[in-house]
């Protein structure tokens, strides 16, 4: 410890704090007595002259009083400091207590659909303390309520009344933890000038699956958005998921190309593809009290409050190798050629190249590929990613030396084989959440909405891992979190749709 000069030590605060601490316990004391305690009790290496100078300076500032050569704390100064501290505490508490937005999350596993909806909404409503009007109700449901979705929604609306309601069926629900065979409800309460939602539900025509033409759909969306008021800050887009009826094809890539690239909507989109617990048969969307099939749904959010959007990919390439693919009329990839210096090399059978990249055996591949969920869960038959975007395609059929993947790739595409681990997936969602809050500069978190690839739920639940629990720690321990596991994630960044990712939307209880 260095010897301090006769001036105030260090920042000028350590010695002053020691003197105040000593005189708060015992008074009055002489300069020599204060010096002795500073040295012995507080272990400060300081000269007597330094202590004496500090005492005289504190007297001149009104902090101490000097009586008959001894020193004591000025009670008037102490009371003024206490009043000042109370004013600061009151001001800060008042600012912290200002409520612009409240978010409530509830869930239910009741078998009766009406009671399940009512219970989940009631739990969410009980978390709202400031009697702000409800501006948005989000409902995410398991297919266990497949024959009674509208009863489920009636149960929710028995609690939320006429508040705008949107949602969909899922591959798994999120309500402060991962859920299954449940319904999750997320409520947003605020004054309308600070946060509001406009819900638009539009039909999809059968031919649009073939043509990919969504020009008229986009025009109608634009018309209704303009009719609803000013340009939204962002939109939540929900679309139908993968169904066997449509050969596991989805309209979402074509729709997003129209909205983002051609129409160029002037606000970002987030969202996901609906699911039905891997039955791949029926993936309805919820609008107010109705369940709609073959529709798209947009929730236009207009808000003065802070919000942040971030995404993270949960998969990474197996290697730096990239391959061009050949596909037959049935959608099987028959051959693959390694791309070197921008050109494809020798064409080889798909199974040969794929098994070399993944390390899976022919027997293992044939045993699990008829079952898409098992393929993802076991994490052995790895997906391929279209290099031009972030879409993953998982294998689900083998014929000779050809493999059929989900139709996220086309003949002539360049692909990479991707992989992940439970550790990688578990860390992805917390990273996305933190980035979303950081990007928006949110100091008062109100809630978080997630759209997470269904592969996360398959792999993590199989290993009894929980990425939501990994987020609900520290400052986010009591943060309301909801969302669903989806068949694909939607955003308006450099690519409009992906899979194998987490998309987080962070909401702040503070004005922008």
List the helices and strands and how they pair.
Elements: H1 14-25, E1 29-30, H2 31-40, H3 48-60, E2 64-67, E3 70-73, H4 75-97, E4 101-108, H5 113-126, E5 134-141, H6 149-160, E6 165-169, E7 173-175, E8 178-179, E9 183-190, E10 195-203, H7 208-211, H8 215-228, E11 234-239, H9 252-262, E12 269-273, E13 285-287, E14 290-292, E15 295-303, E16 305-313, E17 316-317, E18 323-327, E19 332-340, E20 343-349, H10 350-358, H11 362-368, H12 372-378, E21 384-386, E22 392-393, E23 395-399, E24 402-405, E25 414-419, H13 422-440, E26 445-453, H14 454-462, H15 467-471, E27 481-486, E28 489-491, E29 497-498, E30 501-511
Parallel strand pairs: 5-6, 11-12, 26-27
Antiparallel strand pairs: 1-3, 2-3, 4-9, 5-9, 6-13, 7-8, 7-27, 10-15, 11-15, 12-28, 13-14, 16-30, 17-25, 18-19, 18-25, 19-20, 19-24, 21-22, 21-25, 23-24, 26-30, 28-29
Explain this structure to me?
Helix 2 crosses helix 3 (48-60), helix 5 (113-126) runs parallel beside helix 6 (149-160) and helix 12 packs across helix 14 (454-462). 46% of the residues are buried. The protein is an alpha+beta fold and 512 residues long. The protein is 33% helix and 32% strand. It folds into 3 domains: 14-95, Arc Repressor Mutant, subunit A (Orthogonal Bundle); 101-311 and 423-511, no CATH class; 316-419, no CATH class. Strands 17, 18, 19, 20, 21, 22, 23, 24 and 25 form a 9-stranded antiparallel sheet that branches. It has a 6-stranded mixed sheet with strand order 4-9-5-6-13-14. The protein has a 6-stranded mixed sheet with strand order 8-7-27-26-30-16. The protein has 15 helices and 30 strands.
């Amino acid at each position: 410890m260095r010897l301090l000069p006769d001036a105030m030590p260090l920042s000028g605060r350590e010695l002053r704090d020691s003197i105040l601490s000593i005189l708060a316990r015992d008074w009055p004391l002489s300069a020599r007595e204060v010096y002795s305690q500073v040295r012995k009790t507080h272990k400060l290496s300081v000269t007597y002259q330094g202590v004496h100078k500090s005492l005289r300076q504190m007297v001149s500032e009104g902090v101490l009083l000097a009586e008959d050569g001894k020193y004591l704390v000025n009670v008037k100064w102490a009371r003024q400091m206490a009043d000042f501290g109370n004013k600061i505490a009151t001001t800060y508490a008042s600012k912290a207590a200002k409520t612009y937005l409240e978010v409530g999350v509830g869930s239910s596993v009741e078998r009766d659909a009406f009671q399940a909806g009512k219970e989940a909404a009631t739990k969410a409503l009980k978390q709202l303390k400031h009697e702000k009007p409800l501006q948005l109700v989000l409902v995410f449901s398991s297919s266990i309520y497949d024959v009674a979705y509208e009863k489920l929604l009636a149960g929710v609306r028995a609690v939320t009344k006429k508040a705008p309601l949107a949602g969909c069926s899922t591959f798994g629900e999120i309500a402060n933890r991962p859920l299954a065979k449940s319904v999750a409800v997320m409520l947003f309460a605020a004054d309308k000038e600070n946060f509001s939602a406009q819900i638009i539900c539009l039909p999809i025509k059968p031919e649009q699956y073939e043509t990919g033409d969504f020009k008229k759909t986009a025009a109608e969306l634009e018309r209704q958005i303009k009719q609803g008021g000013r340009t939204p800050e962002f939109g939540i887009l929900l679309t139908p998921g993968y169904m066997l009826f449509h050969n596991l094809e989805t309209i979402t890539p074509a729709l997003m190309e129209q909205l983002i690239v051609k129409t160029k909507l002037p606000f970002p989109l987030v969202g996901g593809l609906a699911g039905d617990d891997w039955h791949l048969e029926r993936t309805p969307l919820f609008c107010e009290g109705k369940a709609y099939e073959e529709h798209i749904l947009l929730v236009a959010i207009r808000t003065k409050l802070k919000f942040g959007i971030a995404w993270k990919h949960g998969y990474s390439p197996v290697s730096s190798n990239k391959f061009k693919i050949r596909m037959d009329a049935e959608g099987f990839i028959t051959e693959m050629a390694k791309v070197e210096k921008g050109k494809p090399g020798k064409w080889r059978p798909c199974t040969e190249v794929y098994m070399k990249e993944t390390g899976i055996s022919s027997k293992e591949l044939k045993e699990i590929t008829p079952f898409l969920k098992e393929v993802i869960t076991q994490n052995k038959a790895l997906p391929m990613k279209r290099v031009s975007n972030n879409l993953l395609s998982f294998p689900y059929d083998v014929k000779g030396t050809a493999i059929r993947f989900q139709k996220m790739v086309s003949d002539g595409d360049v692909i990479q084989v991707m992989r992940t681990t439970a550790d990688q997936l578990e860390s992805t969602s917390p990273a996305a959440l933190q980035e979303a809050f950081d990007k928006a500069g949110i100091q008062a978190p109100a809630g978080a909405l997630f759209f997470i690839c269904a592969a996360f739920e398959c792999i993590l639940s199989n290993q009894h891992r929980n990425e939501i629990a990994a987020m609900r720690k520290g400052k986010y321990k009591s943060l309301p979190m909801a969302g669903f596991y989806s068949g694909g994630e939607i955003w308006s960044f450099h690519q409009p749709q992906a899979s194998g990712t987490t998309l987080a939307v962070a909401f702040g209880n503070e004005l922008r």
